[in-house]
Specification:
mainly beta; 130 residues
């Protein structure tokens, strides 16, 4: 597991397919694979996307958990949450819009984009004039 230390501040975008633990500060977007842990010392301002997200620290922004999200009693989350499954411990501070979906939201977005690419039937079949 990769660990970002307490003394580290990241501004920008993080992409990592491996499990990662964030102890420092982040302002930006993170796109992760299997697991991301936001430790009690972490302050994240921005967007986090991963299969499984464990939040013990502060997140201000958007969380997208493709599989599941756990918000611990030490956490403070504000913003927007999209998850397939979610557990919120007693004592966690939460001020967020919550969207629960059976399918991962990224897959849904791809399907919507594919549907928009298809031309309407009336445009695909044109009559030839004689």
């Amino acid at each position: 597991m990769i660990t970002i230390s307490k003394t580290t501040t990241i501004i920008g975008e993080i992409r990592n397919p491996d499990p990662i633990r964030i102890d420092g500060k982040v302002k930006g977007e993170g796109n992760f694979g299997e697991l991301v842990i936001i430790s009690p010392s972490c302050v994240w301002v921005g967007k986090i996307v991963a299969d499984k997200i464990l939040v013990e620290g502060v997140v201000e922004g958007e969380i997208i958990a493709r599989k599941n999200l756990q918000i611990f009693n030490t956490a403070k989350v504000t913003g927007k949450i999209t998850a397939k499954e979610m557990v919120i411990d007693e004592g966690a501070l939460l001020d967020a819009e919550i969207i629960m979906r059976k399918k991962p939201p990224i897959e849904l977005n791809q399907k919507i984009a594919e549907r928009k690419k298809v031309e309407p039937i009336s445009r695909r079949t044109s009559k030839k004039s004689a």
